[in-house]
TrEMBL record, chain A:
WD repeats lie at residues 53-95, 201-232, 246-277. SUPFAM superfamilies: Quinoprotein alcohol dehydrogenase-like. GO terms for molecular function: RNA binding. This is WD repeat domain 75. It holds the Pfam family Beta-prop_WDR75_2nd. The lineage of its organism: Eukaryota, Metazoa, Chordata, Craniata, Vertebrata.
From TrEMBL, chain B:
This is U3 small nucleolar RNA-associated protein 15 homolog. It is found in: Nucleus, Nucleolus. Keywords: Nucleus, Repeat, rRNA processing, WD repeat. Residues 345-488 form the U3 small nucleolar RNA-associated protein 15 C-terminal domain. One of its GO terms (biological process) is positive regulation of transcription by RNA polymerase I. It holds the Pfam family WD40. Part of the small subunit (SSU) processome, composed of more than 70 proteins and the RNA chaperone small nucleolar RNA (snoRNA) U3. May be a component of the proposed t-UTP subcomplex of the ribosomal small subunit (SSU) processome. One of its GO terms (cellular component) is nucleolus. Gene3D superfamilies: YVTN repeat-like/Quinoprotein amine dehydrogenase. Ribosome biogenesis factor. Involved in nucleolar processing of pre-18S ribosomal RNA. Required for optimal pre-ribosomal RNA transcription by RNA polymerase I. Part of the small subunit (SSU) processome, first precursor of the small eukaryotic ribosomal subunit. During the assembly of the SSU processome in the nucleolus, many ribosome biogenesis factors, an RNA chaperone and ribosomal proteins associate with the nascent pre-rRNA and work in concert to generate RNA folding, modifications, rearrangements and cleavage as well as targeted degradation of pre-ribosomal RNA by the RNA exosome.
């Protein structure tokens, strides 16, 4: 097949923002977080992404403020570099090449020109041992500097950035790993090691999880796997060290942080509760409960006014120090599996998939931002390991986005499967979905597929279950009673007690195809009559899909025995079939195209084809590793006008897919990228100057002045128009309110100047009109002379006869005037030349 | 920060009647007023005149009650034997009544002694009525005759002897002074014209006729007898229109609501059923304590009066709209006006620092306990609740949190017996069974060691066991019935050949259908 260089597979949004601890800037205005291979700068008040600092070539593994310049940050990455950024302008200032993959970065105010990084002990990447090294950053003006001056501080440390912390005034560094706490004093150049017993008895796990040092006193707080927090004191000697224990968390303490003044200690864990302990009065605690998901990192702004917590559901919460949530930055939530599949909300055109436990998330693909979460389960979420939670397993939208159907499921050990089918109506007033009907136990077994009828007459939902039945649900209006419309079961169907696996409505909703293992049954939804059965053994039917528009007479099916079949519904016969291990079939709702993802030798291939045509429109081998299980066609805002044949299928809609590693990818064409580039450029130019009334007044005037000067230099003809242009300035002066005008002294000279007739034109006025009747010959002669003169004067040929020829539609009077001016100029310039 | 999400109490689909405008209309009556009469109340008739007094015939008396009085306004006692069918004339001045002693008496409503006495029947007179011209009286008697009498002369005008059994009901036309209809125990309804010697129409009810009713338009006739209520079209020569069988005992009395849109029937099965007269479907149902003999509706449906065999007269008055509001007002003491406006009209000054107050959310008691993870206390509070659906919802929530076993454990005898009581009451309810079976199993697991220590708990456990066994038998029976029905349905369904494409696979079986 032909390789299409113009169509590229690109990452599109939804990157992880909770990988490392975010950093709040000194003025608390910005929040920086590592996001994949870039650093994102968010505004802490508006939650918007301000800059995307790109430059690293591998995962960014840490960010730290530059203690000597509050407008700069360091970032480190697994690509072995430390980069210094100006985050307000989004500029890369310097790159320090360390040469080893870096896992975390620390800076200390007392150690100027030194950053501490965690790198593997051995050179190879597979090494499991890590060390903390101090890197002396060379002072050099170059953009890229090699920093080879490394000195090891601590050996055998944990690569997690929370497992080391710098103490009071950078005098010591504490690092924890396993059951050992190591404190290294820089003055004495001596480490102290403290050990805890494993303590597996009594269910306590003493392993360290995180460390934080008090900024003003000699105190180290450590978090442990069993939820305890220990405060260590007197650790500058081997024997007489002491520690006190605090216990509130029931799960492991994920992160600990002292506030900058050391008055409070913040801790967080799986309970998703931010706990604020008063230092020295530890029995006084403040809680901020129900933050949504397990807390993974806590960061505090340098002035202590803002806290921010990262959560396991790809979210950053910004909290004011009075323990009140002020902003939430939410990325695309990626749970282990997208059980609901990808969907597009027909109203907002947002991508819809599982989000937080028990929620559906609506994610805008164009803005790369989560729009909102819809709480499906509507139950208090209990953070506890080993608890069976309700999960949203299926969801479906009807054609107009008026109805949303969701299935939630909870399987508990030793008891029945709990299933709820919920139907949500779109409420125009609140602009969100409102629960209309809940059906408890709609089927006796798992619901495997669900789809709405696309026909405009009826609102019908079909659910397919492993219990061997499919059910049709209809919206019934109870107008005689006070209750509104609700859903009820209309029909229960089955076929020889076989287990149905998939279902699909035809484009007009007149046919329903249900795949019962090897057999495809085609039903008429109006009468619930079994119209025909189609079968192509061996292999159970895996996926079914009707063609659209001109291909709506075709029904496509994939089977487990690597067969892709296409039936003609009109003749009820097999049109064609091809051996192909199709893992996913997806129809474009706006065109006839169908995308088939095939898995072959650990890679996924993509074929885009029309059911009626033998040749695929587009094919790409080795799209990504692993099976592609989820894909969706998202309609475009604007249609692309790509004329290449193989790229035309991307004109109306865009194909998004999720790889095995849950990366959201899409196909991008050259025209699209060009357009994106152009729009971003235009945006930058537009934003360069702020538009104020003052700018409107002065800026325009200055612009005019500049133009006039240029014109005056290049074309003496422009002198004529100078007066009316000046009068615009006068008019503007007169009509602008006085309080926004610049000072009178400034304006006065400008005003007077604009009224004055320049000396040259004054002289011109005095010239008698006798010379009007000069011959053409003289004129051309004078012109030639003038040209020479001008070339001599400026050394540039900006004005030529061509310009004059370009204005042939002059009236007689104008022509006459022009001639006079030329004549005058000629004499004046020649006089100049003479002297 | 999200707030605590309270426990979701599932809304179960309501079984039984749905809330329709009809149920709202007919439920809008106050609690009935009960008056004890001396014997079975055989007849009730409302006066057509304004205060709408009503005459109640019971035993040897006729009482006239005012619309809201519980004591009789007037009593007629001059009967030698059981009185029947006290009826007002259309001007409300005269009242006629039959008697078991075959004498028909006519009273002035303001007087005491009978104005006229009509003698001629040989047996008890159960039917009396005025004709529409007000000058004649219709009577029907157990001597199989019905007669017309002249009031001024107190003489008998005509006598019809066509029925072959007791005449127990009859009515006169309100539009034509000569037409009247009688119903008899000989299963027939006869329409008479006073100008003609013989009956002009005969209809066969095929049950002893207990009551007849003419529609205001007089095009339709309703008769009741046995368990049936039948509607006849008089304009089509007495063609039966519809036969209703909604009672399971003899229907004794019929009534029509004031707008003629609803038909009421009262029966010995102690029910009053209300039908829609356009489709003859039952729209509402009243229950009474005893078999009903008589029923009457006040004009504008202001009250429903029902007389029963045990001599109790039950009067239901319609709630007036003001009264409804008054009741609502009494239930809740409203805060004074200034409570609502307090602080609302305060305009912040320029330098004021605005401190937003968090909205306080009100949680139920059990939710407060759940929020604090006090699981045992949450279950206790839920058990105190009278509504089983709330208790079951809390149990389900505890089960979801994986702490139901902990909440159930560690209870003393009293607590445990309370829990078992709840289980006995609700475990077989199909709405709660899935949750409560888990809970029951857990209780048995936890407390099996202490079985035999407390007689109270043991007795309850035995009861629970019996209950579960009975339910299992019952479910088995139901499944058997379901199987039988499936067979019947399967044989009655037409066999249809499904078109099968190609020759890849034979396929001639019908799809399994189940509803």
């Amino acid at each position: 097949m032909v390789a299409h260089a113009e169509i590229r597979v690109v990452h599109r949004g939804g990157s992880k923002i909770n990988f490392r601890e975010p950093v709040i800037t000194n003025d608390s205005r910005f929040l920086l977080c590592a996001s994949g291979e870039s650093v994102k700068v968010y505004s802490s008040s508006s939650e918007e992404c301000v800059h995307d600092l790109q430059g690293h070539t591998d995962l960014v593994s840490g960010i730290a403020r530059n203690p000597s310049n509050h407008l700069q940050v360091y970032s480190c990455s697994a690509d072995g570099t430390v980069r210094l950024w100006d985050f307000t302008d989004g500029i890369l200032i310097k790159t320090f090449i360390i040469g080893y993959p870096i896992y975390s970065i620390y800076v200390s105010e007392k150690h100027g020109g030194v950053v501490f990084v965690v790198v593997p002990m051995a050179n190879d990447k597979s090494s499991e041992l890590f060390q903390l090294v101090a890197v002396h950053l060379p002072r050099s003006g170059d953009q890229e500097v090699e920093a080879r001056e490394l000195s090891a501080v601590l050996c055998d440390v944990s690569p997690s950035p929370g497992a080391a912390s710098f103490g009071r005034e950078g005098e010591y560094v504490a690092a924890a790993k396993g059951l050992q706490l190591e404190v290294f004093f820089f003055k004495k150049q001596k480490p102290y090691r403290f050990f805890l017993k494993p303590g597996i008895k009594k269910g306590s796990k003493n392993a360290f999880t995180c460390v934080s040092c008090h900024p003003k006193e000699d105190c180290i707080a450590t978090g442990h796997a069993d939820g305890k927090i220990r405060l260590w004191r007197n650790f500058n000697q081997k024997k007489e060290y002491t520690y006190s224990t605090l216990h509130w968390h029931h799960g492991a303490v994920n992160t600990l942080q002292f506030t900058p003044e050391g008055t409070n200690l913040l801790s967080g864990g799986i309970e998703s509760v931010l706990v604020q302990w008063r230092y020295t009065q530890e029995n006084q605690k403040d809680f901020l409960p129900r933050l949504g998901a397990a807390i993974t990192h806590i960061a505090v702004s340098p002035d202590g006014s803002l806290f921010c917590t990262s959560h396991s559901d790809n979210k950053i919460t910004i909290i004011q120090s009075c323990v009140k949530v002020s902003a939430i930055i939410q990325g695309l939530v990626k749970s282990e599996g997208v059980r609901t599949d990808l969907m597009i909300d027909p109203r907002s055109k947002a991508l819809v998939l599982n989000g937080k436990p028990g929620h559906l998330q609506f994610y805008s693909l164009h803005r790369d931002k989560q729009l909102y979460n819809l709480d499906i389960v509507q139950q208090e979420y209990i953070n506890e390991e080993g608890l069976d939670q309700f999960e949203v397993v299926k969801a479906a939208f009807d054609a107009h986005g008026d109805w949303l159907a969701t299935v939630e499921e909870r399987r508990q050990k030793g008891s029945e499967l709990e299933i709820n089918l919920k139907l949500w109506a779109y409420d125009e007033q609140t602009q969100s979905f409102v629960l209309n009907t809940t059906v408890t136990a709609p089927h006796e077994d798992q619901i495997t597929a669900m789809c709405f009828s696309p026909s405009p007459e009826t609102t019908m939902l079909v659910t397919i279950s492993f219990d061997g039945h499919f059910k049709a649900w209809l919206l019934a209006d109870h107008s005689d009673t006070k209750e509104g419309a609700s859903w009820s079961c209309d029909f229960v169907g089955g076929y020889h007690l076989l287990k149905p696996g998939c279902c699909c409505f035809s484009a007009d909703g007149s046919l329903l195809a249900v795949g019962f293992q090897e057999v495809v049954t085609v039903w008429s939804p109006s009468s619930w009559e079994l119209l025909t059965t189609l079968s192509q053994p061996p292999g159970a039917i895996r996926d079914l899909c009707f063609g659209r528009l001109s291909c709506s007479k075709y029904l496509l099916g994939t089977s487990t025995k690597n067969q892709l079949c296409c039936w003609n519904i009109l003749t009820c016969s097999l049109e064609w079939s091809t051996p192909m291990d199709v893992s996913l079939l997806q129809a474009d709702p706006l065109s006839e195209n169908i995308a088939a993802f095939c898995s072959q030798s650990g890679c996924s291939d993509l074929f885009v084809f029309k059911p009626g045509e033998p040749r695929p429109l587009y094919s790409q081998r080795a799209l990504c590793t692993g099976k592609v299980q989820h894909a969706i066609f998202a309609p475009r805002d604007q249609m692309l006008e790509s004329c290449e044949e193989h790229a035309q299928w991307l004109n109306r809609s865009q194909l998004y897919f999720l790889t095995q590693h849950m990366d959201l990818m899409t196909f991008s064409t050259k025209t699209e990228e060009d357009r994106l580039l152009a729009s971003s450029k235009r945006l930058m130019v537009d934003n360069s100057v702020a538009v104020t009334p003052f700018y409107l007044l002065l800026g325009k005037h200055r612009l005019q002045q500049q133009q006039q000067q240029q014109e005056a230099l290049t074309n003496p003809m422009a002198e004529r128009i100078q007066l009316p242009q000046g009068s615009i300035a006068i008019k503007e002066l007169l009509y602008t309110p006085a309080h926004v005008l610049p000072s009178a002294s400034f304006l006065c000279s400008m005003f007077v100047r604009s009224l004055l007739i320049s000396s040259s034109s004054a002289r011109e006025e005095k010239e008698p009109v006798e010379e009007e009747m000069e011959s053409e010959e003289e004129d051309s002669e004078g012109e030639a002379e003038l040209r020479d003169a001008r070339q001599d004067l400026e050394g540039s040929a900006a004005w030529g006869p061509g310009e004059e020829l370009g204005t042939p539609a002059l009236t007689k009077a104008q022509e006459r005037e022009l001639r006079r001016v030329k004549h005058f100029d000629h004499s004046w310039l020649s006089s100049l030349l003479e002297c | 920060m999200a707030s605590f999400k309270p426990t979701k109490i599932p809304i179960y689909p309501k079984l039984g009647e749905k809330v329709t405008p009809d149920t709202l209309y007919w439920k809008n009556y106050k609690a009935p007023v009960q008056i004890k009469e001396f014997g079975a109340v055989t007849s009730i008739d409302f006066s057509p005149l304004a205060p709408h007094n009503y005459a109640v015939t019971a035993s040897t008396r006729i009482h006239i009650y005012g619309p809201f009085s519980q004591e009789p306004v007037k009593t007629f006692t001059r009967f030698k034997d059981t009185a029947y069918s006290g009826k007002f004339r259309s001007d409300g001045q005269l009242l006629v009544a039959g008697c078991e002693d075959s004498v028909v008496r006519l009273f002035d409503v303001s007087g005491k002694v009978a104005l006229r006495v009509f003698k001629g029947h040989t047996k008890g007179v159960h039917v009396t009525d005025f004709t529409s011209d007000c000058y004649h009286i219709l009577t029907g008697s157990d001597d199989y005759t019905c007669r017309l009498w002249d009031i001024p002369n107190s003489t008998e005008l005509t006598s019809y002897k066509e029925h072959t059994d007791y005449i127990r009901c009859g009515t006169t036309s309100k539009l034509n002074r000569d037409i009247f209809i009688t119903g008899s125990y000989d299963h027939t309804l006869r329409v008479f014209d006073a100008r003609v010697e013989k009956s002009v129409m005969t209809m066969d009810h095929s049950q002893p006729v207990e009551s007849v009713l003419l529609y205001p338009s007089e095009g339709l006739l309703v008769s009741s007898g046995g368990r049936y209520v039948k509607v006849w079209d008089l304009l089509k020569g007495g063609q039966p229109l519809v036969s209703l069988k909604n009672h399971h005992k003899t229907v004794t009395c019929l009534g029509l609501s004031s707008n003629g849109q609803r038909l009421l029937s009262a029966s010995l099965d102690r029910h009053v059923k209300i039908y829609n007269t356009t489709n003859y479907k039952v729209v509402h149902n009243f229950d009474y304590a005893a078999s009903i003999l008589s029923l009457a509706l006040a004009p504008d449906d202001e009250s429903i009066v029902v007389g029963m065999t045990n001599g109790v007269l039950s009067i239901k008055h319609r709630k007036s709209p003001e009264e409804k509001q008054e009741v609502a007002g009494k239930q809740r003491v409203r805060p004074v006006y200034r409570v609502f406006v307090k602080g609302r009209n305060y305009v912040p000054k320029k330098d004021d620092f605005f401190v937003s107050k968090p909205v306080k959310s009100h949680l139920a008691k059990y939710d407060k306990q759940l929020k604090r993870f006090n699981i045992s206390k949450a279950l206790d509070t839920a058990l105190e609740n009278r509504k089983p659906d709330i208790t079951v919802a809390v149990m389900k929530e505890l089960d979801r949190r994986g702490t139901l076993k902990n909440a159930l454990a560690g209870r003393d005898e009293q607590n445990l017996s309370q829990l078992l009581n709840f289980l006995i009451g609700n475990v077989v309810d199909p709405r709660f069974t899935p949750v409560l079976v888990t809970a029951t199993e857990m209780i048995l697991d936890i407390y099996q060691a202490v079985v035999g220590q407390s007689s109270v708990v043991d007795r309850q456990l035995v009861r629970l066991q019996e209950l579960v066994e009975r339910e299992i038998d019952y479910q088995q029976d139901l499944l058997e019935v379901l199987g039988m029905l499936d067979t019947l349905f399967a044989t009655s369904l037409p066999r249809k050949e499904v078109p099968c494409p190609g020759s890849s696979r034979p396929n001639g079986l019908i799809p399994t259908l189940s509803h």
